[in-house]
């Protein structure tokens, strides 16, 4: 059932999109490419250039196709790769550069590129055009097929005593949508002191997906996703001084949510022949009055929870106007500054919410449940930051950055619920009980952060930095909760260059807080990073990284601890133009544990009696909520060019996880926490004429979950050979 909190969550997500999207668009019918910046001087034509209509023209196109042979789980292959057999436009590009820019009328530079058309899950077109100091245009169109069907996600797995036993072979929350994004950005007079800008962004995400609803049983739903976001942007850049610029932007963002939910189907029948669904958790252990879900003749027991029909929709409309003022300046000697102020006043409305359940909720003894209503929310958001850096002497620098963020998010809703009593799906709905409930919610947060940093070049090869960061957060809500949080952090940095070929960077950030807002919010955090590069020869490079992040919240009934550790190494060997070798290895460890109090008829292995505060709340068991995901990954790649016309690459990529988590279901299996993913590859290219190239690519994809049990679902392992053949024409 919907509430005003849903609108609040929506606004929280959308708030992040508006300032980040400086829009972009695409001119329909033109195949497009990489960014271009208006320039005054064009390179002179080279001998053999294709010159037409006063432009040097370069064009290329790769035509070919994929040949795919696949065995194992098609759902997992489509989730991870989703490249299918068929012809493709592998790649194309087009570029026009004016020979004499002074006589070019519409543009003096035009470029475009495209890839993936014909059936690939990701395809895109990019375009840029410019005319000297007059304008600069950038546009793009992208289409992404988003498919996800990991069959353990949201899968109840069906208890072993179920009669009949019907495993769910696909995820009840599978996802199969298409996202189409169009971007435009147009700048007038980009090199002038005043440069107006216009932009537009459109993101439409639609398609079928799965969902569930709990009304007595777990009903399986088809979720028809339709989400649209539109952003209009108008801005201007002003350069009053040589090294100072001021920018103003107005963003208007519109969000439309038109997703609907319906029952997927009815797999069984009542004794009167009416179709009915029991959902996806069929079990012989049912609370009274339903001892067993089926009659001896195979029809459904009408006293059990079931779905005759279900429909839900809740059209949501959100308008997010926002204004942003930015500046940056280096006009004062030895001083650089930058700042930003943004204001957003957002309104979100959920009108005509409708949810109708027709069937039987045997626990609540409801035959029909109908809920209607509306909700609205506001979000007033103010962001500001200012930073200044002063180079006091050639070896000493000081910097200070202040960030401010304040938002208020009030929301109201009014919902009316009508329940018709009943104890059997064979009988019509009984007496109705109607309840109308208004609600008010609010969430406010004020955050202030100040970071001070000093740097000192002890020698030309040693730089030391020391700093301090203070963060204050005050969170309040409509229930009167007042949560102040204060954080203090020490910052340390060191850059060493003992010899010209070796560079070592080390940074440390150690934080302590006096409070936490959530159970996994840290009161203590330590973050250590070290990056090393070594170039003993111009053709030989080594790089290494250590990244250690640890956090904790050590209070009773929480005892949260988490870490992320990353150790990686890479080397590149390129002794000549004829061959090169790249190697990479990484070890990542993601770990967390948090005390969890719960009630269960079958507690998980290792459960302990909970503390008294949990006992008083009726939660007798406690476990540590362990999650452990150690991952190793490695790659090796070689590039060969034995002769000028022949190019080849080959390599191997592998990722292996050996993790674990406490089981919360008697049929739970490790799944992807104990898995391996192998992707060797190779490709060849041969320039058989000056303008024609033959290309062949081979990729092998292999996913497996080792010797671990697969549970009641089909194996998720797959193996796939993917061959791509194409021919490239370029002039």
Description:
This protein is mainly beta. Helix content is 4%, strand content 62%. It is built from four helices and 35 strands. It has helices spanning 4-15, 17-20, 74-80, 612-616; strands at 50-52, 55-72, 86-98, 109-117, 122-131, 135-148, 175-188, 194-215, 217-241, 244-257, 260-263, 268-269, 275-276, 306-313, 316-329, 335-361, 366-391, 396-421, 432-459, 462-477, 482-496, 502-513, 524-537, 540-553, 560-576, 579-593, 596-598, 608-609, 621-623, 627-640, 646-658, 674-678, 681-687, 692-704, 718-730. The strands form three sheets. It has a 30-stranded antiparallel β-sheet that branches. The longest helix is centred in the first third of the chain and has 12 residues, at 4-15. The chain is globular, with a radius of gyration of 31 Å. The chain starts with a helix and ends with a strand. The model is unreliable at 1-42 (pLDDT under 50).
Q: What is this entry, summarized?
A:
With 731 residues, the chain is mainly beta. It has helices at residues 4-15, 17-20, 74-80, 612-616, and strands at 50-52, 55-72, 86-98, 109-117, 122-131, 135-148, 175-188, 194-215, 217-241, 244-257, 260-263, 268-269, 275-276, 306-313, 316-329, 335-361, 366-391, 396-421, 432-459, 462-477, 482-496, 502-513, 524-537, 540-553, 560-576, 579-593, 596-598, 608-609, 621-623, 627-640, 646-658, 674-678, 681-687, 692-704, 718-730.
Helical residue percent band: under 10%
Number of helical stretches of at least 4 residues: 4
- What's the β-strand tally? 35
Low-confidence stretches: 1-42
Beta-strand content estimate: over 45%
Radius of gyration equals: 31 Å
Distance between the termini: 61 Å
What oligomeric assembly is this protein in? single chain
Q: Structural class, judged by helices and strands?
A: mainly beta
Question: How would you sum up the major sheet?
Answer: 30 strands, antiparallel
What's the average pLDDT?
89
Instruction: Tell the overall outline.
Output: globular
